[in-house]
Design goal:
- This protein starts with 6 loop residues before the first helix and ends with a strand.
- 31% of the residues are buried.
- Strands 1, 2, 3, 4, 5, 6, 7 and 8 form an 8-stranded mixed β-sheet that branches.
- Helix 7 crosses helix 15.
- By secondary structure, the chain is of the alpha+beta class.
């Protein structure tokens, strides 16, 4: 591939390989340093030898690539504070009722849940020991207390808890998500257990939050509707915490969610606006250099205010390189620029590699650069208006080619009308952002006219209304699409092969395309036969029982849900999508299940279990039956006892103690997750 002729792209690929190796097979910092230093010495020797001989040798290149792999390993290990001796996890206990005196600083305010306000915190001290590390803080909602802010320093007697894996198959793994952000524990507490000891804003994150807070305070008198203000915060300040679930879902279903995530589109428009504003500086001596420095500073100030998310960091890094090259009259290659920005970001934030926003933004840009020229050249309208809309459509379609496989893997849905929402909004996004910046600046200096604020509010409200209308065309929204990791790789192979063939119709490219088609077919066959085993699942659902029996790609479901719980339940949907199951049938809860040579007895609140000459392999206790478990075990001699989420916690605790005494396996779904029987 011609792309691999660029050295920076090769180095970035090997850096990514090193990050993946370090993430999957953790290596100690000390060993990583020794290996990296050793490889650096070897590389220096090869360089000196090659320099003296005036001959290029393959060994220098091999040493450079291996060194880059271990730089990836080292940077991943180095950024994980858990690898250092002062990480707070080495000074705490996660046993129940184990309280510690903890001093911490609020690092980030997250979207609140139904019952808790959520924060990411930096741990400063455990008792009197100075420590480091991040944790998740959950404070029970209290309308009488004001919420904490970024940089607030708080002390309290609190207990750490381990993060838990999802309790049901194929649910979103919040534990793994937080671990990729170097968060390994969580805290549940109430306001009365905490004491704020400082509110000084002295970190960059605190100052950025102060600026956002000041802007919102200045916008308050203009009576923007909650949804309008939430969209303004998302578009211009990178904060999406206040967007309502309804509005967020509308943008997702309409294929316009990228408009709310500050990324390359927003940063590119802001760069164009700033380039125009700073144009007069070019007349000064060294004006172009001064202009480039100002552009980069402004872009990074914006990135900081927007929260330094993966997508905005990628966009600002890339456009900083573009701004410097553009103002110093240096030629740039888009692929080189993308690779340099990726290389720099991953050196400082290696686990951004696993961030969905980071992946989608880079894939979209790569696809636009590779595919858009080809699509745009299919038709060149002479009318300026038609030309702009045609180019918007080709860019949108190109981006979708880049993100569809990853998007289906993570979100399992495809908005069929994505091009309509993009064709309407994107041409006016520059105007919306420009007016938004003007609104914020005028409000900050107290000269924003009311009529101007009202007009901008109507524009945002109109955009929300249009997106809401598009999202309601449910016939065009494809949901619950099963799409595994094997599909992602094979479909990307197919997309690359198709693009190469359409660009150059050669025999070698045709062979690659046909091979990719075979790979996609093999992926479908592999997935089909991989999921042929039968399994019986006792799902975890608090206060209810939910059983599933998967046989021959169909699922038989039995539960005791009320109508409201049944309508909101996503457990079955997650399971069927994850296992590529399309047929779902309903059944009633039974007392006995025969699973080939295995049997399961269900004991409910009636407590009936005396069945002559019947010794089940498994006993499921549901709805808190008032039974003597010792007598049950002695009489029917089960091999496993299962307690689902419908039982009282006090009962489960007693049953667990009895099973432990009798050395009988006991499975509590609220702790260990769903119980699965393969048969």
């Amino acid at each position: 591939m011609k792309l691999l002729n660029f050295t920076i792209i090769k180095l970035t690929c090997f850096l990514i390989l090193g990050i993946l190796i370090s993430y999957l097979f953790p290596i100690s910092i000390r060993l990583s340093i020794y290996i990296t230093v050793g490889l650096l010495v070897i590389l220096s020797i090869f360089f000196l030898m090659a320099r003296k001989q005036f001959v290029k040798t393959i060994w220098f290149g091999i040493a450079a690539y291996i060194l880059m792999i271990f730089i990836g390993v080292l940077t991943t290990s180095f950024h994980n504070q858990k690898n250092f001796s002062n990480h707070y996890s080495k000074f705490i206990s996660v046993e129940k009722d184990s309280l510690e005196t903890v001093t911490f600083r609020i690092r980030e305010v997250l979207k609140p849940g139904n019952y808790y306000d959520k924060y990411v915190i930096d741990i400063l001290k455990i008792n009197d020991k100075m420590v480091s590390g991040k944790s998740l803080l959950n404070i029970q909602k209290d309308t009488t207390q004001s919420a904490l802010k970024v940089d607030d320093i708080v002390i309290g007697n609190i207990a750490f808890q381990n993060l838990i894996h999802p309790l049901n198959p194929h649910q979103f793994d919040y534990k793994k998500y937080l671990e990729k952000k170097y968060i390994y524990h969580q805290i549940f507490t109430v306001n009365t257990s905490l004491l704020k000891i400082s509110s000084d804003r002295h970190t960059l994150f605190g100052m950025a939050d102060n600026i956002r807070e000041h802007i919102n305070l200045k916008l308050e008198p203009y009576h923007f509707k909650p949804d309008e203000l939430a969209i303004i915060n998302a578009l211009l300040l990178g904060q999406r915490q206040d967007i309502s679930e309804e509005v967020y879902t509308s943008y997702t279903n309409a294929g316009a969610i990228h408009i709310l995530a500050v990324s390359g589109l927003h940063v590119g428009i802001i760069l164009l606006i700033l380039t125009f504003v700073f144009k007069p500086i070019e007349r000064l001596k060294h004006g172009k250099l001064i202009k480039a420095i100002l552009l980069v500073l402004c872009l990074w100030c914006f990135a900081l205010i927007a929260g330094l998310s993966a997508s905005v960091t990628r966009a600002v890094t890339m456009f900083s390189i573009v701004a410097i090259a553009m103002n110093l009259k240096r030629p740039t290659n888009v692929y080189n620029t993308l690779a340099i920005s990726m290389f720099v970001i991953l050196l400082f934030k290696p686990l951004f590699l696993f961030d969905v926003g980071f992946q989608l933004s880079y894939l979209a840009v790569f696809a636009i650069v590779a595919i858009d020229p080809m699509l745009y050249n299919l038709w060149r309208p002479k009318n300026w208006f038609l030309d702009k809309y045609w180019h918007t459509l080709t860019v949108t379609v190109s981006a979708q080619f880049g993100i569809i496989p990853v998007s289906l893997f993570y979100f399992h849905q495809f908005p069929g009308l994505f091009f309509i929402s993009n064709l309407v909004i994107i041409p006016f996004l520059g105007l919306i952002l420009g007016l938004g910046i003007l609104v914020i600046l005028l409000a900050a200096i107290n000269i924003l006219p009311n009529f101007f604020a009202e007009i901008y509010g109507y524009i945002i409200s109109g955009m929300n209304g249009f997106v809401g209308w598009v999202s309601k065309q449910e016939a065009f929204l494809l949901k619950d699409i099963a799409f595994g990791l094997v599909y992602v790789f094979t479909f990307y192979l197919g997309i690359i092969a198709l693009v190469k063939f359409l660009k150059k119709r050669s025999f070698s490219n045709l062979k690659l395309l046909l091979v990719s088609v075979i790979c996609i077919q093999c992926a479908f066959i592999y997935t089909h036969y991989k999921n042929t085993s039968n399994e019986f699942i006792v799902f975890h659902k608090s206060r209810y029982s939910l059983l599933g029996n998967s046989v021959n790609h169909s699922l038989l479901v039995a539960h005791d849900f009320d109508s409201l719980t049944a309508s909101k339940n996503k457990i079955i949907k997650d399971y069927t999508v994850g296992n590529h199951i399309k047929t779902i049938k309903k059944d009633t809860l039974k007392s006995i299940y025969i699973l080939n040579d295995k049997t399961l007895l269900v004991v409910d609140s009636l407590g009936v279990y005396n069945i002559k000459s019947f010794q089940p392999d498994y006993v499921l206790l549901r709805q808190s039956p008032k039974i003597n478990l010792n007598r049950l075990i002695d009489s029917i001699k089960p091999k496993n006892i299962i307690a689902d989420g419908s039982n009282y916690k006090s009962y489960i605790k007693q049953w667990e103690a009895i099973c432990e005494k009798k050395k009988l396996p006991f499975h509590q779904t609220s702790k260990k997750g769903a119980f699965i029987i393969d048969y």
